[in-house]
Design brief:
2 copies of one chain form a homodimer.
Chain A: H1 35-44, E1 47-51, E2 56-58, E3 66-80, E4 86-93, E5 97-98, E6 111-124, H2 125-134, H3 136-162, H4 165-182, E7 189-191, H5 196-203, H6 207-219, E8 223-226, E9 229-232, H7 235-243
Antiparallel strand pairs in A: 1-6, 2-6, 3-4, 3-5, 3-6, 7-9, 8-9
Chain B binds a DNA duplex (30 and 30 nucleotides) through helix 6.
Chain lengths: ~250, ~250
DNA sequence: CGCGCTGTTGAAACTTGTCAAAGTTTGTGG
DNA sequence: CCACAAACTTTGACAAGTTTCAACAGCGCG
């Protein structure tokens, strides 16, 4: 877990079992619902499950019937091809949804693996469609969430298609920082839950290149690195590094 | 336009103005709707528009209110960043939808440019949400289309993150071939509507690298290239090239 | 019919990948 | 709780792939 910043909006120590009592509801699917609507969503989200570090939440090729909301923890999604190549397609944290890729073919098209002990809420998709026909806010918000995923993917394409190694890593760190901030954690200090290899796979780089970029950022005074513990010392420096291409 | 293969399922010479009469309905939003449901969709899709080659259908940052179905023609979507870098995020052809990225923020997040004279149908999004609350098939199919876009994006990430230049181009050509086939055109012979630079931007390569890869494919006998006219001579060869990494 | 845009090709430079070795952390079983 | 093995990280030297720069050819639009 990253460092809590005092007074952050989220307290993970209190975990209720319904959306209506969930601290993540403003980040997650229930955004914008009334109290009465929230209760109806509660009925739907009945299955909650722990996923231990290293376990799969789902695997590519298996039948799709639910999407998943992360209540706590940290996941990666990846796609594997025959010859053993892996592409990490994303890292997901509390309040984010997993499994949207499975809707199109009714089978999951990637693997979702917990990078730390996590808890998820399963949302049966057929029932979500029923409910979203009745609750306009839910329908619209769900569409926004799917669209946001598409926009996020375009950002990754930009990163992979046009940036060099250090720019990619800077963008990655700034993105993590921003997402931790949104969850009430420190924007400047966090633990990475993934290995250099997984970061590399996400960024289209080899692990050695990732490691060298970390070292270089440290030399330049942008960050302090101690294995998986990262402290960002110069946000502006990282941003500048991202923007001037050469 | 790519070569028509005789007896293909689509005749572009007959263009009706309603979904119910549109030859693309099996590729496009109306998939799976009954005749009665189709009529209701017709009411919604009232604006049809020509977009000349080089013109923008929409621009990044402008307000979003409709998604667009391509009736005929060819588009690219791209994202620009300040320092002038461009990432082409996709090439779209008849029957495909444009603008899904705009739902999340109610503003378009990329540019859509016609690569040949094209025709589109505008689908007001708010009205689509209303109708999809009433027509379950439409709702579900729309969700599938959005999800398919996410899956497609993951494929592009895989391409950008793990493949080398020639693999990327092979994957690109095979993908185009497959999509032309689905539209009743020859799978082996087509005109590229985009420049080497646009292909390069999509594939995360410089135009010179794309050009060299085309030349090499021609030397190896995989394809015949004459500027924008491509003939695929050895599908299996291209597939093999994609799969063995080194 | 020519000018500009697009595409091709070569050589050199640069970035990233590959291979290898050693150091560090983490997890497990005794 | 310690010890050892496995997994992960760092760093160096070298190789490979891609970009950069440059020159030229070809096509097509006006």
């Amino acid at each position: 877990m990253p460092q809590r910043s005092p007074g952050g909006p989220i307290s993970l120590s209190v975990i209720k079992t319904a959306c209506s009592g969930c601290n993540l509801r403003e980040l997650c699917l229930p955004l914008g619902l009334s109290a009465e609507e929230l209760e109806r969503l509660d009925d739907l989200v009945s299955v909650r499950r722990r996923v231990k570090r290293g376990e799969h939440l789902y695997r590519s090729g298996t039948p799709f019937d639910s999407i998943f909301a992360i209540r706590s923890g940290f996941f990666k999604t990846d796609v594997l091809i025959e010859d053993g190549r892996e592409q990490v397609t994303g890292f997901q944290m509390a309040g984010e949804l997993l499994g949207l890729d499975g809707i199109s073919s009714e089978h999951h098209t990637c693997n979702a693996v917990a990078l730390e002990d996590s808890e998820i809420c399963a949302i049966p998709f057929a029932r979500l469609e029923v409910l979203s026909r009745e609750i306009h806010t839910l329908q619209h918000h769900f569409h926004k969430v799917m669209s946001r995923e598409i926009v996020r993917d375009h950002g990754v394409m930009m990163l992979l298609g046009t940036m060099r190694a250090e720019e990619r890593l800077a963008a990655f760190l700034l993105n993590l920082s921003q997402r931790f901030t949104a969850r009430g954690f420190s924007h400047a200090e966090f633990y990475l839950r993934m290995t250099r290899e997984e970061i590399g796979s996400y960024l289209g780089l080899k692990l050695e290149t990732v490691s060298r970029a970390f070292s270089r950022f440290q030399e330049e005074g942008y960050i302090a690195v101690q294995q998986k513990h990262i402290r960002i010392l110069d946000v502006a420096g990282l941003k500048a590094l991202m923007n001037h291409h050469r």
